Amino acid sequence: MNKHKKGGWSQMRFNRLRKGAIKSFLSEVAEDLLESCTGQETRGLVVAGPGTAKSQLLEILPADMGKRVLGVVDLSIDATKRELLEIGNEIALADERERSMERAEELRSEILRGGLAVRGVDATKAALAVGRVGVLVLLKDASVPGWICERCEALEAKKRPPECPICGGPTSTVDVVNELYELAERTDAEVEFVEEDPCLASSEGVGALLRY
Ligand SMILES: [Zn+2]
Questions:
Q1: pTM here?
Q2: Any idea what the CATH number is for the domain that residue 118 is in?
């Protein structure tokens, strides 16, 4: 388009038409995006490409989609699909790390001020059992040996007794952290894995942010 002769009324008209064409193209992109994300679980959006069209696209994205933009990247129009995927993964991973660090921070400060949080296996198990857990926070690779009752689901981070002291049912050896994870899934709690955190490390690698 830049090869066109410059100047005069026709140039002004041309610029206006060109702006209109870009805008309607971007609206089409936004609509396509909305359509392909509907009904799918997406981790987020990365807007990539050359030039200034990226910011124009961001302006016309519906607000709830705009909120899901994890990054904006300058990229050649010739970038391969593979490059796009690599960049997307990098950005998503960085976002995940940041999120889990925020969660760990939130857990720490709630515990310090005696707010809506618990830590350690016993307190976390008790909160999960009554559905109080909003987010189960686990230290990556945390593992606590213990036992579970096959009948009443009593769970303890102790050596397995031959039979459940509560109901007399059969017991089996389990990783308690694993059991907490499954309990979280069943009670619709989110689960957040944290790379490293001294507060969690000193409480068996387990903690939870509470709903109430
Ligand atoms: Zn039992």
A1: 0.73
A2: 3.30.1330.30
